[in-house]
Amino acid sequence: MIEQIHIKKSEKEKNLPKKQKKINEFLYFARRNNKLKIGLFIVIFFILIAIIGPLFTDYEWRAYIGPSSQLPSLEYWLGTTTFGQDVYTQFVQGLRASFIVGVIGGGIATIIGIIIGFTAGYRGGIIDESLNIITNIVLVIPTFALLLIIAAYLKVRGILTESIFIGFTAWPWAARAIRAQTFSLRSRDFVDLARISGMKPTKIIFTEIAPNMMSYLLMTFILQFGGAILIAATLDFIGLGPTNAISLGLMMNYAVLWGALQFGVWWWFVPPGLAIMLIVGALYIMNVGLDEVFNPKLREM
Amino acid sequence: MRRYFGRKIIIYLSTFFLAVTIDWAIPRLMPGNPIVTLLSKVSVHAEAAEVMYGYYTKAFGLDLPMWRQYLNFWIALFHGDLGTSVYMFPQKVSDVIMRSVPYSIALLVPAILLSFYAGNKFGAFAARTRWLDNTLLPLGYLLTATPYMWLGILLAWSLGIVAGIFPVAGAYGFNLAPSFSWAFIFSLIKHWFLPFASLFLVQFGGWAIGMRNMIIYELEADYSHYLEALGAPRKLVRRYAFRNALLPQITGLALQLGVIVAGALVTEVVFSYPGLGSLILSAIQNKDYFLIQGCFLFIIIGVLIANFIIDIVYVIVDPRTRLGMVGGSS
Question: Would you tell me which residues 1-40 of chain B have a C-beta closer than 8 angstroms to some C-beta of chain A?
Answer without folding.
Answer: 10-12, 14-15, 18-19, 22-23, 26-27, 30, 37
